[in-house]
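Q: Given only this backbone (222 positions), what sequence would you predict?
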C-alpha cells in the first residue's frame, strides 16, 4: 500500500470541505502554500489529493497554512474549492517559515504564464534561508526564478530533452541538473516530479506526501 493511501483516505472522508487557513489551529508557525491558477485538469482531484493532502500533513506537523495566488480569488472545481486565498502581492514573508508550491496540473512548456509575484517570493525566501518546495510542474516557477541553476531537481521528465510526446524543450531549466521523478533536495530547494494527476493519468508514482514531509523536515532543521 502506498504511503499516500491513508492520508488520501483522510481527505476523501472529509468530503466536500473547502480548504482554507481557517481550518488550522493558532500555533504561530505558518507556511505559505501557493496553488497554481489556470488549470482545467481535474481540479477536484488536485484540490483534494494534492492541496488537501499537503494541508493535512502540515496541520499534523503543527503549522498554520495560508494560501495565496496572484488574483486571490477562490479556485473552484465541480465539487471542491480552495477559498480564503490571499493575494501574493499582500504576502509579508517574515510571517512564514517556508513556501510550498502545488502543481495543480499546470505547467507543460510553454504552459500558463508564471506568476511573477510567486517568482519574487521564491527568490526572497531562499535568500533568507527558508525552504521552498515545488511539486511536479510547479518547479517551472523555480526555473523561471533562476534558482535551479547548478542545483539538482526533480521533474516529470527532463525538460531539456525533446521526445515524441513532448516535442519542445524548456530553456528555463538550462544549467540545472535533472535528477529524476522522485523527491530531490538540494540545499533549501525541494522538488518532486509526480503529482496526483500524473499518477492517475500515466501511472507514475505520486510523491506529494514525501515532498511535503521533506519540506517539514527542512523547516525543522533551520
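A: Predicted residues:
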Amino acid at each position: 500500500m502506498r504511503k499516500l493511501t491513508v492520508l488520501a483516505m483522510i481527505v476523501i472522508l472529509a468530503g466536500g470541505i473547502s480548504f482554507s487557513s481557517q481550518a488550522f489551529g493558532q500555533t504561530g508557525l505558518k507556511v505559505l502554500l501557493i496553488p497554481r491558477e489556470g488549470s482545467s485538469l481535474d481540479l477536484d482531484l488536485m484540490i483534494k489529493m494534492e492541496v488537501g493532502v499537503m494541508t493535512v500533513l502540515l496541520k499534523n506537523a503543527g503549522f498554520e497554512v495560508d494560501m495565496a495566488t496572484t488574483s486571490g480569488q477562490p479556485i473552484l472545481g465541480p465539487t471542491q474549492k480552495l477559498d480564503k486565498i490571499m493575494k501574493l502581492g499582500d504576502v509579508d514573508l517574515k510571517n512564514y517559515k517556508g513556501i510550498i508550491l502545488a502543481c495543480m496540473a499546470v505547467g507543460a512548456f510553454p504552459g500558463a504564464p508564471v506568476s511573477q509575484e510567486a517568482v519574487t517570493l521564491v527568490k526572497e525566501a531562499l535568500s533568507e534561508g527558508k525552504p521552498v518546495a515545488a511539486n511536479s510542474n510547479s518547479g517551472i516557477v523555480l526555473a523561471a526564478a533562476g534558482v535551479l541553476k547548478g542545483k539538482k531537481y526533480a521533474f516529470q521528465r527532463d525538460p531539456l530533452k525533446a521526445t515524441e510526446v513532448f516535442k519542445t524543450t524548456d530553456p528555463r531549466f538550462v544549467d540545472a541538473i535533472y535528477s529524476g521523478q522522485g523527491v530531490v533536495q538540494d540545499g533549501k530547494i525541494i522538488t518532486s516530479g509526480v503529482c496526483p494527476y500524473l499518477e492517475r493519468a500515466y501511472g507514475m508514482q505520486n510523491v506529494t506526501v514525501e515532498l511535503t514531509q521533506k519540506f517539514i523536515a527542512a523547516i525543522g532543521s533551520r
